[in-house]
């Protein structure tokens, strides 16, 4: 069974189209990254999954249950970290987790174990009003983990976390996934998604413009490998000769004796061999993988952050 099934989902706010005919399937057990610049429609999609917002058109299901018709049932198997959730200032960290335990009927959960996992056990007895932004975010993640949900829906989970906190959050997501949970999280921070996701969807102006594995996205960019070659000499004909090699996408000179070539993985050796046969020596050879950031810019034409 699929964890999430969205069919032809649109959402209009007056003249603003927040989602435009989105079709998306997330399989059980996947870690799926939902990527898009600010205002792309990520939160709107998550809000529809949670029945906090109604779609103008289309349908969404969680584990086969319609999110609008049977919202309560659909949410039963879900742990949520909503965007911009405010902690309750007068309650301690421990009381927040206890509240989540009561509302999810997860009475065999030890609140301190959860607080330990998210790294704020020492602050269990302190009121959340004194928590830093990152501590509050960890607390909300802890609340989402209560009851071992089958699906974690996380809207920008790394908000407010320092690099260590973000790395810990990724570790927790991996652990949850190993336990069997499906993870769906939105982000505009590309490295977060690249580091943990099986697949990503790129949303732009409400439209899902790509859904693929990171590898698949690289492939669709023409292999996604960039070679930087420093040669003993750069002849007038060299760039044109390399351009004729199968799998080569672009060739450019960057200085007197250095060229940059984007190509498929298979073409790398062919380029070096062709240069050698032409009597040109490769003094230095470096490959760079296209980062998700490159792809994101290519797809959306905007910077991700
Ligand atoms: N309640 C609302 N009323 C009117 N417009 C809304 C409402 N919620 C969202 N929008 C609009 O819908 C579009 C998508 O917003 P959404 O918050 O879903 O984007 P997002 O991808 O989550 O952005 P961010 O990364 O900034 O949180 C935006 O143009 C936003 O202004």
UniProtKB/TrEMBL annotation:
Q: Please list the GO terms describing molecular function.
A: ATP binding; ATP hydrolysis activity
Which CDD domains does the entry link to? ABC_DR_subfamily_A (cd03230)
UniProt cross-references to InterPro entries, sorted A to Z: AAA+_ATPase, ABC_transporter-like_ATP-bd, ABC_transporter-like_CS, DrrA1/2-like_C, P-loop_NTPase
Keyword Transport (UniProt): yes
Instruction: Tell me the domain of life.
Output: Archaea
Xref: Gene3D superfamilies: P-loop containing nucleotide triphosphate hydrolases
Q: Where is the ABC transporter domain?
A: 4-230
Which keywords does this chain's UniProt record carry? ATP-binding, Nucleotide-binding, Transport
**Which family does this protein fall into?**
Belongs to the ABC transporter superfamily.
- What is the name listed in the Swiss-Prot or TrEMBL entry for this protein? ABC-2 type transport system ATP-binding protein
